[in-house]
Amino acid sequence: MSEAIKMRGARAVADVTAGMLLASVEIKASPERVFRALASEDIAQWWGSPDLYRVTQWTGELKVGGQWRSVGVGRDGKPFEVSGEFLEIDPPKKLVQTWAPKWVEGAATKVTYLLDAIEGGTRITVRHEGFGNAAEACHSHAAGWERVFTWLATWLEQP
């Protein structure tokens, strides 16, 4: 992990009672670059690592009501898929989408990305909600967002 990321610290906190989490990070990249990295084929370039899992393909129609889909492979070689629908799009400030992993039964959760321009880059705040009483899933997604933000920052901040 780069020293810059350690100093700014991707961080997340789960509120299992409310069935939601908040995560944030500051990245040395413009809101436009960050937005594109979150809502385009670029996801397959940065989301994941060989020791956990890796997104290999992303497709989507970036419009309200448009569908998106990520497919990838776990470290065990098993394929996975996450998909959803875009609910709100306000580039480069806000993106709201549903999140439905194929390996979990039940209702989709909702992810809201807020991108704020700050001196030298962008602050990303994610609100991931809809976990209900699935406390373990809420906690594990909080840790997952910290990893995801680290991957994103590393990719966007490379020279």
What do these coordinates show?
- The chain is of the alpha+beta class and 159 residues long.
- The protein has one domain: START domain (Alpha-D-Glucose-1,6-Bisphosphate, Chain A, domain 4, 2-Layer Sandwich), CATH 3.30.530.
- The protein has 4 helices and 9 strands; from the N terminus they run αββααβββββββα.
- The protein has a 9-stranded antiparallel beta sheet with strand order 1-2-9-8-7-6-5-4-3.
- It is globular and about 40 Å long.
- The chain starts with a helix and ends with a helix.
Summarize the structure.
The protein has 4 helices and 9 strands; from the N terminus they run αββααβββββββα. With 159 residues, it is an alpha+beta fold.
Using brief descriptors, characterize the structure shown.
disordered N terminus; nine-stranded antiparallel beta sheet; alpha+beta; 44% strand; single chain; Alpha-D-Glucose-1,6-Bisphosphate, Chain A, domain 4
